[in-house]
Amino acid sequence: MSLSASSIKIGDTHTEVLVEDLKRTQIVQYAGASGDYNPVHTDEKFVTEIAGYPTVFAHGMLTMGMTGRLLTNFVGDGRLTKYGVRFVNQVWPGDTLTATAEIVDIREEDGQRLADLTVTTVNQDNTAVLTGNATARIDD
Amino acid sequence: MAVEDFAVEASHIMMFARSIGDDNQIYYDASYAAGTEPGSIIAPPTFAQASAQFDEDYFLRPKPGKTWFGSGKEATGLQKKAKDDSDGEKKDGGGAAAGGLHAEQHFEYHRHLKPGDVLSATVKQGETWEKQSKRAGTLKFSETITEYRDQNGELVVTARGVGVTTEKVIEN
Questions:
Q1: Tens place of pLDDT for every residue, chain A, 140 residues?
Q2: ipTM exceeding 0.95?
Q3: Other CB atoms within 10 A of residue B61 CB
Q4: Is A87–B101 a contact, with Cβ atoms under 8 angstroms apart?
Q5: Which chain A residue's Cα is nearest to B61?
Q6: Which domains does chain A have, with CATH numbers?
Q7: CB contacts, 8 Å: A45 with chain B
Q8: Which CATH class is domain B3-166?
């Protein structure tokens, strides 16, 4: 699946629930796959007694990875040319995350049609945890 | 992170995709992937970050014979923060680190990664800046730019990470 300039318009959105009731085990799974074993993400004793947080929290990159899934589902596989985010609030075990991408521009660069998107991921309280933008190649 | 030999492998892509809850067949099924536009298995958009696995000195991975700052019997094997550790290991300014948080991450894809790629990455320090925050006190930001090149020396992914250290713990 990919997008074409003739079938989309500025303001079109795509929303997906990324995860419901985020499990500590998924955070462990991400640590193992990514190689980022920072104990703040998986080590309750360290994070509460030493780092001073209420509990473990997800890697920002886990949220970015899950949000990337929404983007590739929307724009198609191998179509992203840029994807960047800010991590604006922490993601905790038990969070339910929902992401929305919106098409903000459709343009042409060096003969290639592109769509610019913004993306926002919110938690169950509708608080943003990630904001970002992306650019994707689209068809005519 | 600086790495010399980041071999992109199908099994690693599969595990990474699982960890982000992405069951798209293009990340694990070669025959399905052959019929897609990319024409082969590709890596998910944030996969380059797993280069940490290939950084020998990566600070956020326990290593045999080295002190680890996470908990065992006690809450930590070190006093307070490994940040002050003087063992000379590299710290990753652009990523989450003990005492630091990941503030931003940006990728530019010159092409998408696929099994068989062997990447090397070079890291440049970018800007540093400070900001005042009511919630977290003085925020110190530092940027790193990582360029991933393939076995032919072609630039494939440019990554820009921003790390932040906060004066106070952020509890939302």
A1: 689 888 999 999 999 999 999 999 999 999 999 999 999 999 999 999 998 999 999 999 999 999 999 999 999 999 999 999 999 999 999 999 999 999 999 999 999 999 999 999 999 999 999 999 999 999 98
A2: yes
A3: 17
A4: yes
A5: A37
A6: 13-137 (3.10.129.10)
A7: 71, 75
A8: alpha beta
